[in-house]
Amino acid sequence: MNESPGVADLLGVLAYAELSAFTRMTEDAATLAPTLADRTALCELAVAEYQHFRLLYDRLRELGADPERAMQPFAGALDAWHTQTSPADWLQALVKAYVGVGIALDFYREAARRLDPSIVELVDEVLTDEGRAEFAVERVRAGVAADPAVSGRLALWARRLVGEALSQGQRVAAERPELALMLVESGANDQAEISRLFAKLTEQHGKRMAALGI
Amino acid sequence: MNESPGVADLLGVLAYAELSAFTRMTEDAATLAPTLADRTALCELAVAEYQHFRLLYDRLRELGADPERAMQPFAGALDAWHTQTSPADWLQALVKAYVGVGIALDFYREAARRLDPSIVELVDEVLTDEGRAEFAVERVRAGVAADPAVSGRLALWARRLVGEALSQGQRVAAERPELALMLVESGANDQAEISRLFAKLTEQHGKRMAALGI
């Protein structure tokens, strides 16, 4: 690769995030959706994630990188996140899909602000799918309206999702400092900048929770 | 629907077959693929199955049918097939993908021979993907070359796959006689015609086993 060494890391982590989201959403759709229409809706989202994965995979190849080697260092953290946040029911699955896609999109946007034009283009393509997870909002709000008691339970669940994501994110940032540094303004205090990035992701997460009504 | 009553059944069984194949292949890819490249190859095939599912789903809607209602009667038999044929390793997963896609394509072809032009068009679209499962042939042959002892084991596995498929097929034919009758020349002895159809599917299966070298 001719790019800066962190670019393969960045594309690799996003690629494995999309691939594992595709797998888990497909599984959640099959095991938790109450109807075939619900199952289809979540599968649509899963397949859109797969298409993002393909974009990243092909981009890695174009850059002369080995996509498998680029993804491998992040498989552990992302698989651990999914294992720790395996949804117990359909509403949890929807909240997870919405939260997960949202965090990923924030991450793409941050990356696009710092990086070379090739990433910006790719981000634009991914962002055309931004509205796809909106079906989850509608269904979660309907679920909360039908039984207000689920609201608190789902709020806790969402907090756990983002908490585990930040924890895995810290682990990745520690193991791959180059990747973390690509995402922040380089300055005197890189660790503080990374914390600020995480604070920003958390703030965006709060807005999404408000949208869900939990 | 203005079509003959069996058309929704036919599109429904094919749609659920594609949806469940998509789900199971995605799961097998995540749990059994030895490398991320292998996982990606099987996911590609899974997503192609999903795209066939969407064609069938949209076609059902266009015909004024409820896709969920059309699929529901076949979910039991198809899920049972998958449960009974859960692959134990990567080569079994590849053989299953190849055999399953092959049986489905034979089924599409038989349906196209008997049915109205709307199905024929859809079948043409599906058949453009006919070569997609070929990667499995190459990998299974390589697996057999590396360890000739697996050949017999995989041959037994393939026999089980088709045996369970015929058994579930008989169950569906008994429960939905209209569907079965759409697929055979109507004649004095419908049961014999259905058996002849199954014999034809089995013959095609034999050719695929020869291609796999097992």
From TrEMBL, chains A, B:
InterPro entries: Ferritin-like, Ferritin-like_SF, Ferritin_actino. SUPFAM superfamilies: Ferritin-like. Residues 6-185 form the Ferritin-like domain. Pfam families: MiaE_2. Gene3D superfamilies: 1.20.1260.10. This is Ferritin-like fold-containing protein.
